[in-house]
């Protein structure tokens, strides 16, 4: 456990140093001094505050174990999430928000001072691919998870803008390709307009303004969760709701989608999420050689 604690300490140090590099700190007085576009204050409304037991605050990064974590939070209140989702036709985030209401400033700011705070991240490119496959790749399946909504709000517009008549596409396909989705991300100012499923971590959970006690990474998921459990005094951790695709390894999936992109496009996508890469120590090296 000592080695895990040291790794977490180094991880939090890297976050702090990256934030300092861009002149963003929890005690910053004037957001005009920031070296990059950044929210002037934490997004208090997106956080889940748990204070029935030991006070904790969770920031949900969608497509980074958020479903499992929200189920876990609900289990702490003995809520049958699956039952409520099926009988009321609601998303897990809606069920969780009902039982963990958002808290506004200044009460939220006071609670943040006392609570143990945590979030989960994964390689930004893995998350982008996961968001595409789950929300935009096929609008006819997974409608209980909002795929039709995402097609109507994003997919249709992406295709209209980025699909060319000369593109070698299946004429029956109405959804955007992965390459078209990536073009959309590259051309969009994500500091002003981004869905929660692909907004950069630093804009959504604002780790430069909130001193997180634990930042869980997919690469060390089990060990990081155990550290969190020890910190908040819980014995039972989350049950993981989503697993890797059957028959296809993560490497094969990444290669099949990112292999559609040029090195230049991958570089531009990296630029859009550069702060997340710096904050959490991720690299694009493996993607440039696909």
Automatic annotation (TrEMBL):
<dbReference type="InterPro" id="IPR018011">
    <property type="entry name" value="Carb_sulfotrans_8-10"/>
</dbReference>
<dbReference type="GO" id="GO:0000139">
    <property type="term" value="C:Golgi membrane"/>
</dbReference>
<keyword id="KW-0119">Carbohydrate metabolism</keyword>
<dbReference type="GO" id="GO:0016051">
    <property type="term" value="P:carbohydrate biosynthetic process"/>
</dbReference>
<keyword id="KW-0333">Golgi apparatus</keyword>
<keyword id="KW-0812">Transmembrane</keyword>
<keyword id="KW-0735">Signal-anchor</keyword>
<dbReference type="Pfam" id="PF03567">
    <property type="entry name" value="Sulfotransfer_2"/>
</dbReference>
<dbReference type="GO" id="GO:0008146">
    <property type="term" value="F:sulfotransferase activity"/>
</dbReference>
<dbReference type="InterPro" id="IPR005331">
    <property type="entry name" value="Sulfotransferase"/>
</dbReference>
<keyword id="KW-1133">Transmembrane helix</keyword>
<comment type="similarity">
    <text>Belongs to the sulfotransferase 2 family.</text>
</comment>
<keyword id="KW-0472">Membrane</keyword>
<keyword id="KW-0808">Transferase</keyword>
<keyword id="KW-0325">Glycoprotein</keyword>
<protein>
    <recommendedName>
        <fullName>Carbohydrate sulfotransferase</fullName>
        <ecNumber>2.8.2.-</ecNumber>
    </recommendedName>
</protein>
């Amino acid at each position: 456990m000592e080695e895990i604690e040291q790794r977490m300490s180094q991880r939090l140090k890297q976050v702090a140093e990256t934030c300092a590099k861009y002149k963003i700190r929890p005690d910053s007085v004037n957001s005009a001094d920031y070296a990059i576009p950044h929210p002037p204050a934490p997004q208090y409304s997106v956080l889940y505050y748990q204070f029935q037991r030991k006070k904790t605050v969770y920031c949900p990064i969608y497509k980074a174990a958020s479903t499992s974590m929200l189920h876990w939070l609900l289990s702490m209140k003995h809520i049958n999430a699956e039952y409520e989702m099926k009988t009321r036709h609601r998303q897990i985030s809606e069920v969780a928000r009902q039982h963990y209401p958002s808290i506004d400033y200044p009460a939220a700011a006071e609670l943040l001072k006392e609570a143990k705070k945590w979030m989960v991240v994964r390689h930004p490119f893995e998350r982008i691919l996961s968001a595409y496959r789950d929300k935009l790749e096929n609008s006819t399946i997974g409608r209980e998870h909002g795929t039709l909504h995402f097609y109507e709000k994003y997919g249709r517009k992406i295709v209209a803008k980025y699909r060319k008549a000369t593109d070698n596409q299946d004429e029956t396909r109405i959804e955007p390709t992965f390459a078209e989705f990536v073009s959309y991300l590259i051309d969009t100012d994500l500091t002003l307009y981004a869905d929660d499923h692909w907004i950069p971590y630093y804009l959504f959970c604002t780790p430069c303004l909130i001193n997180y006690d634990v930042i869980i990474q997919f690469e060390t998921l089990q060990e990081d969760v155990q550290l969190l459990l020890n910190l908040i005094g819980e014995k039972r951790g989350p049950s993981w709701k989503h697993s890797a695709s059957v028959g296809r390894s993560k490497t094969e999936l990444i290669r099949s989608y990112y292999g559609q992109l040029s090195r230049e496009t991958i570089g531009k996508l990296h630029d859009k999420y550069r702060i997340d890469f710096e904050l959490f120590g991720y690299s694009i090296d493996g993607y440039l050689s696909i």
